[in-house]
Design brief:
- The radius of gyration is 21 Å and the shape is globular.
- It has helices at residues 8-17, 51-54, 73-86, 95-109, 150-153, 170-173, 181-193, 236-247, 293-307, and strands spanning 26-31, 36-38, 58-66, 69-71, 114-121, 138-144, 158-162, 197-199, 214-218, 224-226, 252-254, 267-272, 276-283, 286-287, 312-314.
- The longest helix is centred in the N-terminal third of the chain and has 15 residues, at 95-109.
- By secondary structure, the chain is of the alpha+beta class.
- Strand 9 (214-218) and strand 10 (224-226) form a beta hairpin.
- It folds into 2 domains: 8-144, D-amino Acid Aminotransferase, Chain A, domain 1; 150-307, Alpha-Beta Barrel (D-amino Acid Aminotransferase, Chain A, domain 2).
- Helix 8 crosses helix 9.
- The strands form 2 sheets. Strands 7, 8, 9, 10, 11, 12, 13 and 14 form an 8-stranded mixed sheet that branches. A 7-stranded antiparallel sheet has the order 2-1-6-5-3-4-15, with helices on both faces.
């Protein structure tokens, strides 16, 4: 037999001499199977029989920590519960328990700015598609390096394309499950085409979302227009941006949009936890109008992230 068979000690020795280079920006991880936090990337693992791994049977949220506080945590916990309920996944953790895991893990990471991936899985127990073989819900949180905001990296704005990948069906599209294969295909499509983002188009010809961001536009009257979440996920960041826009006296409404309308409006944005408010400068190689509202709302969002005590969950000193 030519393939080696290792013991636990062999595997530990391998990890000690060969640290995975791609984990350099992994800061901390909590896992419910061991109910503890680890800070060595070599220990950051998930049981291979967790249905989260081999079936994508789970839900997740991406959290942002800025200046020592997690932003908009309540909205993320609310959506995590809503997504779990939609797929019949029990969440035995209370809101307070989830917050404690989040605060403790981000605090253990020791970073002023980072991202966190909070995953609620069906749990381990076998390799079939049957959820009932799982032994219980699993919870994981990985805290990792956050890239610079998009507009800091690309101050000219985002190049956007229209995606040929069919969007998710209505019900599943509104649930933040761990089955992100369509999203990954849209991302790959954008990278291959040299675009920063790709926007989906549903079967009726209306725009949906990008791979992990929402679409918004500013019409010629200065109102913020958001496509209703029929074939895409309602975004927590977009919802907060809409609230900030309304607080500043701007009109906000939901309205279906077709691709050709992107060339008739005053501004086009993509909005998300990691994109913040990103101005779009072109769609399929054609320039679109830009204006001041993206910058104003981007600054309002950044100020909200930095200083709004109602939206900030402080880490432990």
């Amino acid at each position: 037999m030519s393939t080696a068979i290792w013991t636990v000690r062999d595997f530990e020795a391998f990890l000690a001499r060969t640290p995975p280079p791609h984990t350099e920006g992994f800061y901390a991880m909590y896992g419910s199977p061991w109910d503890a936090i680890v800070t060595d990337p070599a220990c950051m693992c998930v049981p291979v029989d967790d249905h989260l791994v081999h079936r994508g049977d789970g839900v997740f949220e991406t959290l942002l920590c800025e200046e020592g506080a997690v932003y908009n945590l309540g909205a993320h916990v609310e959506r995590l519960r809503s997504s779990a309920e939609a797929i019949g996944l029990a969440c035995p953790w209370s809101d307070a328990g989830l917050r404690e895991v989040v605060v403790d893990t981000f605090s253990a990471a020791g970073k002023e700015r980072a991202l966190g991936r909070l995953l609620l899985g069906r749990g381990p127990g076998g390799f079939s598609v049957d959820p009932n073989e799982s032994t219980g819900t699993s919870l994981y949180l990985v805290v990792y390096r956050a890239p610079a905001p998009f507009m800091e990296r690309e101050p000219e704005g985002a190049k956007v394309m229209l995606s040929a990948v069919p969007p998710k069906s209505g019900g599943l599209a509104r649930v933040k499950t761990c089955n992100y294969l369509p999203n990954a295909m849209v991302k790959a499509e954008a990278v291959k085409a040299g675009a920063h983002f790709a926007l989906g188009v549903d079967g009726e010809g209306f725009l949906t979302e990008s791979f992990t961001e929402n679409l918004a536009v500013v019409d010629r009257e200065g109102a913020l227009v958001i496509p209703p979440p029929v074939h895409h996920l309602p975004g927590t960041t977009l919802r907060r941006v809409a609230e900030l826009a309304e607080a500043s006296g701007r009109a906000v409404r939901e309205e279906k949009l077709r691709p050709e309308e992107l060339f008739r409006v005053s501004e086009v944005w993509v909005v998300g936890t990691t994109a913040y408010v990103t101005r779009v400068c072109s769609v399929d190689g054609r320039a679109v109008s830009t204006g001041p509202m993206a910058g104003a709302l981007a600054e309002a969002l950044r100020e909200d992230i930095r200083s709004n005590p109602e939206m900030r969950t402080l880490l432990r000193g």
